[in-house]
Design a protein that fits this description.
Length: about 325
Protein backbone atom coordinates (compact mmCIF):
# COMPACT_ATOMS: atom_id res chain seq x y z
CA UNK A 1 0.00 0.00 0.00
CA UNK A 2 2.91 2.37 0.60
CA UNK A 3 3.44 2.86 -3.14
CA UNK A 4 -0.09 4.26 -3.53
CA UNK A 5 -0.74 6.34 -0.43
CA UNK A 6 0.59 9.60 0.95
CA UNK A 7 1.16 9.12 4.67
CA UNK A 8 0.74 12.30 6.70
CA UNK A 9 1.99 12.68 10.26
CA UNK A 10 0.64 15.67 12.18
CA UNK A 11 2.26 16.81 15.43
CA UNK A 12 -0.39 18.42 17.60
CA UNK A 13 -1.21 18.88 21.27
CA UNK A 14 -1.52 20.59 23.62
CA UNK A 15 1.41 22.54 22.28
CA UNK A 16 3.89 20.23 20.52
CA UNK A 17 6.75 22.73 20.22
CA UNK A 18 7.31 22.83 24.00
CA UNK A 19 8.02 19.11 24.11
CA UNK A 20 11.72 18.79 25.06
CA UNK A 21 12.17 16.19 22.32
CA UNK A 22 10.41 18.20 19.59
CA UNK A 23 13.55 19.22 17.68
CA UNK A 24 15.05 15.74 17.90
CA UNK A 25 11.81 14.11 16.75
CA UNK A 26 11.34 16.54 13.86
CA UNK A 27 14.87 15.93 12.62
CA UNK A 28 14.28 12.18 12.86
CA UNK A 29 11.04 12.43 10.89
CA UNK A 30 12.80 14.55 8.26
CA UNK A 31 14.94 11.55 7.35
CA UNK A 32 11.70 9.74 6.47
CA UNK A 33 10.13 12.61 4.53
CA UNK A 34 9.44 11.84 0.89
CA UNK A 35 6.67 12.11 -1.64
CA UNK A 36 4.79 9.41 0.28
CA UNK A 37 5.58 10.59 3.81
CA UNK A 38 4.77 14.16 4.85
CA UNK A 39 5.01 15.76 8.29
CA UNK A 40 3.05 18.76 9.57
CA UNK A 41 2.62 20.58 12.87
CA UNK A 42 -0.24 22.44 14.56
CA UNK A 43 0.96 25.09 17.01
CA UNK A 44 -0.22 28.21 18.83
CA UNK A 45 2.68 30.09 17.24
CA UNK A 46 4.14 31.33 20.53
CA UNK A 47 7.66 30.01 20.09
CA UNK A 48 11.20 31.12 19.32
CA UNK A 49 12.95 31.77 16.02
CA UNK A 50 14.98 28.56 16.21
CA UNK A 51 11.81 26.49 16.35
CA UNK A 52 10.28 28.48 13.49
CA UNK A 53 13.36 27.82 11.38
CA UNK A 54 13.15 24.14 12.28
CA UNK A 55 9.53 24.10 11.12
CA UNK A 56 10.38 26.01 7.96
CA UNK A 57 13.18 23.62 7.06
CA UNK A 58 11.69 20.25 7.94
CA UNK A 59 7.89 20.54 8.05
CA UNK A 60 5.78 19.90 4.98
CA UNK A 61 3.00 22.07 6.43
CA UNK A 62 2.19 24.18 9.48
CA UNK A 63 -1.11 25.30 11.01
CA UNK A 64 -1.14 28.12 13.56
CA UNK A 65 -4.25 28.74 15.67
CA UNK A 66 -4.71 32.36 16.76
CA UNK A 67 -6.60 32.87 20.04
CA UNK A 68 -7.65 36.28 21.33
CA UNK A 69 -7.51 35.45 25.03
CA UNK A 70 -3.71 35.70 25.06
CA UNK A 71 -1.93 38.79 26.39
CA UNK A 72 -1.21 41.66 24.01
CA UNK A 73 2.52 40.93 24.01
CA UNK A 74 1.90 37.24 23.29
CA UNK A 75 -0.47 38.04 20.44
CA UNK A 76 2.02 40.47 18.90
CA UNK A 77 4.72 37.83 19.05
CA UNK A 78 2.43 35.27 17.43
CA UNK A 79 1.60 37.62 14.56
CA UNK A 80 5.28 38.46 14.12
CA UNK A 81 6.05 34.74 14.06
CA UNK A 82 3.35 34.14 11.46
CA UNK A 83 4.87 36.75 9.18
CA UNK A 84 8.37 35.36 9.77
CA UNK A 85 7.28 31.80 9.05
CA UNK A 86 5.42 32.88 5.92
CA UNK A 87 8.82 33.83 4.46
CA UNK A 88 10.25 30.39 5.23
CA UNK A 89 7.46 28.24 3.78
CA UNK A 90 5.56 28.22 0.48
CA UNK A 91 2.09 29.81 0.52
CA UNK A 92 0.27 26.48 0.39
CA UNK A 93 2.20 25.08 3.37
CA UNK A 94 1.19 27.67 5.99
CA UNK A 95 -2.37 28.00 7.22
CA UNK A 96 -3.74 30.20 9.99
CA UNK A 97 -6.91 29.34 11.91
CA UNK A 98 -8.34 32.53 13.39
CA UNK A 99 -10.42 31.28 16.31
CA UNK A 100 -13.46 33.57 16.57
CA UNK A 101 -14.70 34.02 20.13
CA UNK A 102 -18.28 35.21 20.52
CA UNK A 103 -17.29 37.95 22.99
CA UNK A 104 -17.71 41.22 21.12
CA UNK A 105 -14.22 42.67 21.59
CA UNK A 106 -12.57 39.35 20.74
CA UNK A 107 -14.75 38.91 17.67
CA UNK A 108 -13.85 42.39 16.41
CA UNK A 109 -10.17 41.69 17.08
CA UNK A 110 -10.37 38.50 15.03
CA UNK A 111 -11.82 40.46 12.12
CA UNK A 112 -8.83 42.82 12.28
CA UNK A 113 -6.43 39.86 12.39
CA UNK A 114 -8.06 38.51 9.22
CA UNK A 115 -7.56 41.88 7.54
CA UNK A 116 -3.91 41.91 8.67
CA UNK A 117 -3.32 38.44 7.23
CA UNK A 118 -5.05 39.35 3.98
CA UNK A 119 -2.79 42.39 3.60
CA UNK A 120 0.24 40.13 4.10
CA UNK A 121 -1.03 37.58 1.58
CA UNK A 122 -1.20 34.84 4.22
CA UNK A 123 -3.90 32.15 4.00
CA UNK A 124 -6.34 31.95 6.90
CA UNK A 125 -9.65 30.40 7.86
CA UNK A 126 -12.08 32.13 10.26
CA UNK A 127 -13.09 29.38 12.67
CA UNK A 128 -16.13 29.17 14.90
CA UNK A 129 -15.31 27.62 18.25
CA UNK A 130 -17.00 24.62 19.84
CA UNK A 131 -16.48 24.12 23.56
CA UNK A 132 -19.47 22.07 24.64
CA UNK A 133 -21.74 24.97 25.55
CA UNK A 134 -25.16 23.55 26.41
CA UNK A 135 -27.54 24.16 23.53
CA UNK A 136 -30.31 26.72 23.84
CA UNK A 137 -31.93 25.67 20.58
CA UNK A 138 -35.00 23.48 20.25
CA UNK A 139 -33.35 21.15 17.75
CA UNK A 140 -32.48 17.99 19.71
CA UNK A 141 -29.79 17.11 17.17
CA UNK A 142 -27.65 19.88 18.62
CA UNK A 143 -27.27 18.85 22.24
CA UNK A 144 -24.10 20.92 22.49
CA UNK A 145 -23.18 23.98 20.50
CA UNK A 146 -20.24 26.13 19.68
CA UNK A 147 -20.03 29.60 21.17
CA UNK A 148 -23.45 31.24 20.84
CA UNK A 149 -22.84 33.95 18.27
CA UNK A 150 -25.14 36.91 17.76
CA UNK A 151 -27.18 37.36 14.59
CA UNK A 152 -24.76 40.07 13.44
CA UNK A 153 -21.76 37.81 14.04
CA UNK A 154 -23.45 34.97 12.16
CA UNK A 155 -24.09 37.37 9.32
CA UNK A 156 -20.37 38.23 9.19
CA UNK A 157 -19.49 34.52 8.85
CA UNK A 158 -22.12 34.03 6.16
CA UNK A 159 -20.96 37.08 4.22
CA UNK A 160 -17.38 35.86 4.37
CA UNK A 161 -18.19 32.42 3.02
CA UNK A 162 -20.61 33.72 0.42
CA UNK A 163 -17.74 35.81 -0.93
CA UNK A 164 -15.36 32.85 -0.72
CA UNK A 165 -17.85 30.79 -2.76
CA UNK A 166 -18.21 33.60 -5.27
CA UNK A 167 -21.75 34.45 -4.18
CA UNK A 168 -22.94 37.99 -3.75
CA UNK A 169 -21.86 39.71 -0.56
CA UNK A 170 -25.24 40.97 0.54
CA UNK A 171 -27.30 38.35 2.34
CA UNK A 172 -30.51 38.28 4.27
CA UNK A 173 -30.65 38.36 8.03
CA UNK A 174 -29.74 35.00 9.58
CA UNK A 175 -32.12 33.21 11.88
CA UNK A 176 -31.49 34.74 15.29
CA UNK A 177 -32.23 31.50 17.12
CA UNK A 178 -29.57 29.54 15.26
CA UNK A 179 -25.89 29.32 16.05
CA UNK A 180 -22.99 29.04 13.63
CA UNK A 181 -22.90 25.24 13.87
CA UNK A 182 -26.42 24.97 12.53
CA UNK A 183 -25.53 27.35 9.72
CA UNK A 184 -22.59 25.17 8.81
CA UNK A 185 -18.91 25.88 8.33
CA UNK A 186 -15.93 25.22 6.06
CA UNK A 187 -13.40 22.44 6.41
CA UNK A 188 -10.78 23.47 8.97
CA UNK A 189 -8.14 22.35 6.46
CA UNK A 190 -9.61 24.44 3.65
CA UNK A 191 -10.64 21.41 1.58
CA UNK A 192 -13.42 21.37 -1.02
CA UNK A 193 -16.46 19.20 -0.24
CA UNK A 194 -18.36 17.08 -2.74
CA UNK A 195 -21.92 17.06 -1.39
CA UNK A 196 -24.81 14.95 -2.65
CA UNK A 197 -28.29 16.35 -2.02
CA UNK A 198 -31.57 14.50 -1.51
CA UNK A 199 -32.74 15.54 -4.99
CA UNK A 200 -29.77 13.76 -6.58
CA UNK A 201 -27.73 16.85 -7.42
CA UNK A 202 -23.99 16.95 -6.66
CA UNK A 203 -22.31 20.13 -5.44
CA UNK A 204 -18.65 21.14 -5.13
CA UNK A 205 -18.31 23.67 -2.31
CA UNK A 206 -15.94 24.87 0.40
CA UNK A 207 -18.80 25.31 2.89
CA UNK A 208 -20.98 22.61 4.45
CA UNK A 209 -24.45 23.96 5.22
CA UNK A 210 -24.76 21.78 8.33
CA UNK A 211 -22.42 20.05 10.76
CA UNK A 212 -24.97 17.68 12.27
CA UNK A 213 -24.30 14.11 11.11
CA UNK A 214 -25.41 12.10 14.11
CA UNK A 215 -26.39 8.54 13.09
CA UNK A 216 -24.75 8.93 9.67
CA UNK A 217 -22.23 6.33 8.49
CA UNK A 218 -18.71 7.71 8.67
CA UNK A 219 -15.32 6.45 7.48
CA UNK A 220 -13.16 8.44 9.87
CA UNK A 221 -11.37 5.21 10.84
CA UNK A 222 -9.98 4.82 7.31
CA UNK A 223 -8.40 8.26 7.05
CA UNK A 224 -7.15 9.28 10.49
CA UNK A 225 -5.32 7.82 13.46
CA UNK A 226 -4.56 9.73 16.66
CA UNK A 227 -2.03 8.72 19.30
CA UNK A 228 -2.59 10.37 22.70
CA UNK A 229 0.99 10.11 23.89
CA UNK A 230 0.56 11.06 27.54
CA UNK A 231 -2.34 8.64 28.03
CA UNK A 232 -0.91 5.88 25.80
CA UNK A 233 -4.28 5.68 24.04
CA UNK A 234 -5.04 5.38 20.34
CA UNK A 235 -8.19 6.85 18.76
CA UNK A 236 -9.62 6.95 15.28
CA UNK A 237 -9.59 10.75 15.60
CA UNK A 238 -8.33 13.26 18.14
CA UNK A 239 -11.53 15.23 18.72
CA UNK A 240 -14.47 13.15 17.49
CA UNK A 241 -13.18 9.89 19.08
CA UNK A 242 -15.92 7.91 17.36
CA UNK A 243 -15.65 4.16 17.61
CA UNK A 244 -17.82 1.25 16.54
CA UNK A 245 -21.15 0.49 18.27
CA UNK A 246 -21.88 4.25 18.49
CA UNK A 247 -19.38 4.82 21.29
CA UNK A 248 -16.74 7.44 22.05
CA UNK A 249 -13.67 5.48 23.04
CA UNK A 250 -10.11 4.52 22.20
CA UNK A 251 -9.38 1.60 19.90
CA UNK A 252 -6.50 0.39 22.06
CA UNK A 253 -3.27 1.49 23.68
CA UNK A 254 0.30 2.04 22.55
CA UNK A 255 1.15 -1.11 24.51
CA UNK A 256 -1.14 -3.34 22.42
CA UNK A 257 -0.68 -2.05 18.86
CA UNK A 258 -0.18 -5.63 17.64
CA UNK A 259 -3.73 -6.40 18.75
CA UNK A 260 -5.08 -3.41 16.81
CA UNK A 261 -3.19 -4.37 13.66
CA UNK A 262 -4.29 -7.99 13.96
CA UNK A 263 -7.93 -6.88 14.20
CA UNK A 264 -7.67 -4.66 11.11
CA UNK A 265 -5.79 -7.31 9.13
CA UNK A 266 -8.52 -9.79 10.07
CA UNK A 267 -11.15 -7.52 8.55
CA UNK A 268 -9.14 -7.08 5.37
CA UNK A 269 -8.53 -10.82 5.00
CA UNK A 270 -12.16 -11.72 5.65
CA UNK A 271 -13.40 -9.00 3.30
CA UNK A 272 -15.82 -7.66 5.94
CA UNK A 273 -15.36 -4.52 8.00
CA UNK A 274 -17.62 -2.73 10.50
CA UNK A 275 -18.78 0.80 9.70
CA UNK A 276 -18.92 3.60 12.26
CA UNK A 277 -22.31 5.15 13.00
CA UNK A 278 -21.60 8.68 14.21
CA UNK A 279 -22.46 9.12 17.92
CA UNK A 280 -21.72 12.87 18.00
CA UNK A 281 -24.31 15.62 17.83
CA UNK A 282 -21.84 17.95 16.09
CA UNK A 283 -19.06 17.16 13.64
CA UNK A 284 -16.04 19.25 14.56
CA UNK A 285 -12.72 18.32 12.96
CA UNK A 286 -13.41 15.44 10.58
CA UNK A 287 -16.11 17.28 8.63
CA UNK A 288 -14.24 16.57 5.38
CA UNK A 289 -14.27 12.79 5.87
CA UNK A 290 -16.46 10.62 3.62
CA UNK A 291 -19.86 10.04 5.25
CA UNK A 292 -23.31 8.95 4.14
CA UNK A 293 -26.87 9.19 5.43
CA UNK A 294 -28.05 5.83 4.06
CA UNK A 295 -26.51 2.38 3.73
CA UNK A 296 -26.61 2.24 -0.07
CA UNK A 297 -24.40 5.31 -0.36
CA UNK A 298 -22.16 4.15 2.48
CA UNK A 299 -21.66 0.78 0.77
CA UNK A 300 -20.80 2.51 -2.51
CA UNK A 301 -18.28 4.78 -0.79
CA UNK A 302 -16.58 1.90 1.01
CA UNK A 303 -16.27 0.04 -2.30
CA UNK A 304 -14.51 3.07 -3.78
CA UNK A 305 -12.06 3.14 -0.86
CA UNK A 306 -11.60 -0.62 -0.35
CA UNK A 307 -13.00 -2.48 -3.39
CA UNK A 308 -12.60 -5.96 -1.87
CA UNK A 309 -14.31 -5.17 1.45
CA UNK A 310 -18.01 -5.47 2.32
CA UNK A 311 -19.49 -3.25 5.07
CA UNK A 312 -20.92 -4.67 8.28
CA UNK A 313 -23.55 -2.42 9.85
CA UNK A 314 -24.29 -2.53 13.55
Amino acid sequence: MTDKLVWKVSLTGGEPTINPHFAQFVEFLSTKKSETFKVGVTTNGHTNKNTLELIGEYMHSCTISYHCENTDSTKKRILDNIVYLSKLMPDWALKINVMFHARHDYFEECKKVCEFLSDKGIKYIPRSIGEGVKSKTKNKLYAYDAHLYTAEQNKWFKNYWDLARGDKAEVGEPDVGHNIREQGRPCCGGRTFTIGHDDGTIEETNYASSTGFQNWYCFINLFWLHIEQQEKLIYHHQTCRANFNKTLSSIGTTDNTDRILKRVNGWLKSGKMPVITCPNSICNCGLCITKAKNRDDATKFLKEILPSVEPVYG
